[in-house]
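== Sequence, structure tokens ==
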Amino acid sequence: MAKIVVTFNGLIQQELSILKSRIMLGRRPGNDVVIDHLTVSGQHAAIDTTTTGSFVLDLGSTNGTLVNGQPIKKHLLQNGDIIDIGKYKVRYQNDTEDYDLPDAALKIKPSSLSVSTVSARIQVQNGANAGRELILNKPVTTIGSPTVQVIAITQQEQFFYVAHVDGASSPKLNSKVIDKQPQKLSDGDVIDMSGTKLIFVISSQKR
């Protein structure tokens, strides 16, 4: 389960599990996370969670919102990201988000989850990771590097969908641009992420 950990000068001030679609952070008492400091705006930032992941949004704050030291307006959160809100730091923790695509080169971290109920996977066709496989055994799997290119593959019952959720450049599905609207995947579909080709494969047998 995803959560945020609020710290000040290295000391934990608050921990909050992400159990609803929007979490508000700011100085006003009505926020979900109240940060009583002059560097924090009344409604400073929000964390919005959808089927494609959790995003942090700056709400026009006076001092801005940073993620990993970089100012943002909207950012798809990855496990371990540090959000700076005034003098406070907010760590986003979600152990299910373990897949990155830095500089268009796919890196897949091993999954510790059981694959006995896996029904689909992604195969890397080219580049340094050619031949590697990514098992799709989670409701949402994000692949990519924030600000560069990120896709989310969502499982809904027996079907899988892909959407472009972050980054300036657009990935492609069977040579057609993937937009923000989820597109249904079929066995053998080719996803192109900045030249790295990923094949979507439906598994016919349990492993």
About this structure: Confidence is low (pLDDT under 50) at residues 97-116. The chain has no helices and 23 strands.
